[in-house]
Amino acid sequence: MRLYYGIMATIFGALLLMLSYLFGWVDYNWVQYIAILFMVGGICGHIYVNYKKPVYDEEEAK
Fold it and tell me: CA-CA distance, 60 to 39, in Å (whole number)?
């Protein structure tokens, strides 16, 4: 499940942006800033977690 936290944060940020435009919250910059932070953080987190994950197990290599 830990592998998908970045994707979930990115989707949450995108949903927050869509909701802000739907409800007319475009005048409030803090909503867009939070959504962008979730999206950028989610992308970076997803890349970091997948980069740290080993491609194969050491036991399988033997």
Answer: 35
Could you tell me which residue, 1 or 4, shows the higher pLDDT? 4
Residue 57: per-residue pLDDT:
56
CA dihedral (25, 31, 36, 37) in degrees, to 10, reads -170
**What's the pTM?**
0.75
DSSP-assigned letter for residue 2? G
Q: How far apart are CA 51 and CA 24, in angstroms?
A: 38
For the chain, the domains span 2-52
Measured between alpha carbons, how far is residue 41 from residues 13, 15, 20, 53, 61 in Å?
10, 15, 19, 18, 34
